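Sample A.
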Amino acid sequence: MDTEQQRLIRSIFSHDNPGNFDPRGLAIYRRNLVASACRALSVTFPTVEQLIGESLFRHAAQQMLSEFPPTAPDWGVWGEHFGRLLGQLPELESYPYVSDCAQLDYACHKLSRAADCETDFDSLQLLGTETADSVVLKLSECFLIVTSDYPLADIWLAHHDSDQLTEERIRRIRKKTGNTATQGALVYRKNHRVQVREIPADEQRWLAFLQQGMRLSDALDEMQNTDFNFENWLPEAVFMNIVSAVTTADLTA
């Protein structure tokens, strides 16, 4: 059975007002709801708002309310489908990368609300006492990777770091946008602050091997003849809370 709230929401986005609510009150409620949605989405998707501007962003927010209305009172958990919706709006055809930018914004938002990840620093000593074929690197849940056919990390950094927004960087972004090379964006949290950087394809492969639970020696073997450097990567990964622990491998596996 429909609730009063469900009938109200349907009436807000319907031209025929199936709930028979007062049209004047409905118009006021609609304006307030759209304003709340715009504020919430602008917090979660700041890059998208900067890219497409206030008018198109408001239009997208209205479409989002209609297609994927919030199901919880916390606006902060709303927006998972925004990237997909943006990719379907004909008004945004001139922004082919905006859907991927939304996915990256949402990854940043999601990680900012996630619980802290702890690193077992004592376990790192196993790297000095055990052989590479007897240890496994465990990864934390405090990082995410978003891939795109566009220079996603460059676009994000250009809109979030004033030092990055130079004419030279803008030229590089425009040049990359015309290419078809895939770029990955690594989202991580350092000192309780979410940050983004480009992640090379080799490093993505490396992290995938570790996520599969490979022994360190096997993962290193897979990375031979690549530009990946484990000695350089490890301290940075620990500092970025990507590595959570080192454990002994199951030697019977």
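Sample B, a different protein:
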Amino acid sequence: MAETLNGFAVGDWVEIVNPDGRDSVILKQRVGLLGCITKISEGNLYPFLVHFNDGAETGFSADELVNQNPCSEISFHVDVVDIRSTQETINDLVGKLATVSGTPLEFIEPLADWEKEILEEGKEENATPDVVNHPSHYAEGWSNGAEVIDITENLNFNRGNAVKYIARAGKKDQDRELEDLKKAQFYINREIAKMEAGV
């Protein structure tokens, strides 16, 4: 795992961009969002694993990222609540501050603490795999955490299925590896026939 690549480093804050209007569902969903690079896997199609505020982590290429100027501090201005005069519970007061002699409070929290928290959350999430939404035979072998669907979504049906069966061959069931490769061959042959027919 690399610590830096193409001017990006683990811990960098980046904005997601779509440099040439790519038809990627995941990219379109994340354009304009800010995330933190948690892992760099040199040599992969999408080497930068980016953690987002909603807890998702997705791989991106360098041209899909724009470095954001790192800030050492962020100033938060929050709602003022006088705890003595409200019926809200403590849970409702999360993120709010009480008044001090009627004066609103302001606080500053170092961004570095948030970065550490996000990086630690990423490590914890990677420690317990989600076998329902991300079975091991879907992502195994892709060091950047990308799944086959991330790659195949930009291909036509035959090519996407061929890549899918090749990438997952034998990962779910070792005894069916040859069958998976024959399925890939079937879709490759269909695509070749389609091209030869001029369709």
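Observation for Sample B: The longest strand covers residues 34-40.
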